[in-house]
Amino acid sequence: MAIVTVAYDEDCGACRWFADSLRKLDRSHNLDFVPIQRADWQLAPVPKEERLDAMHAVTDDGRVYTGGAALPVLARALPGGRLLSAVAGASPTLTDRVYRAAAGRRTTIGRLLGADACAVDPSRLADRS
After folding, report:
1. What 3 state SS string does the chain have?
2. Residue 34: beta bridge partners?
3. What is the pLDDT of residues 37-46, one digit of tens each?
4. Global pTM?
5. Using one digit for the tens of pLDDT, what is the confidence trace for 73-129?
6. Could you give the C-alpha distances from 52 to 43, 63, 86, 89, 129, in angstroms and in order?
7. Which residues pair with 33 in a beta bridge?
8. CA 8 → CA 5, 38, 80, 87, 90, distances in Å?
9. The sheet that has 4-8: what strands, in order across it?
């Protein structure tokens, strides 16, 4: 059973690529993936008009972490991610600035990654190796 749900923008190629990269790193199957567009109950605490502004991490107890605040939560759920989680959590302001800088350039990042890299479906259950 997943301990964290990753809510990502299914209409954003860079967002799909990032979520799929997390899925591939998740050898312990601690993460579940759902498009923001279909995450109504998971994202109930987040106003609808703000949901697509960033990715979200929803813990099994219902807490929602958004943008840079989601990164330490996601890293901690990954095998070997405790150090990265500690680093990201040590400076939440810096982590959020870095996240926002990348998110603000997601169209450019998607173009750089290419159509094939961005055509993934992180919510698929198959191929969780």
Report:
1. CCCEEEEECCCCHHHHHHHHHHHHHCCCCCEEEEEHHHCCCCCCCCCHHHHHHCCEEEECCCCEEEHHHHHHHHHHHCCCCHHHHHHHHHCHHHHHHHHHHHHCCHHHHHHHHCHHHHCCCCCCCCCCC
2. 7
3. 999 899 999 9
4. 0.87
5. 999 999 999 999 999 999 999 999 999 999 999 989 998 999 888 888 888 754 444
6. 11, 18, 26, 23, 28
7. 6
8. 10, 10, 22, 23, 24
9. 31-35, 4-8, 56-59, 64-66
Cα-Cα-Cα-Cα dihedral of 14, 18, 23, 24, to 10°? 100
Residue written as tokens 């591939």?
24
Pair of tokens at residue 15: 């967002």
* Structural tokens at position 115: 């159509």
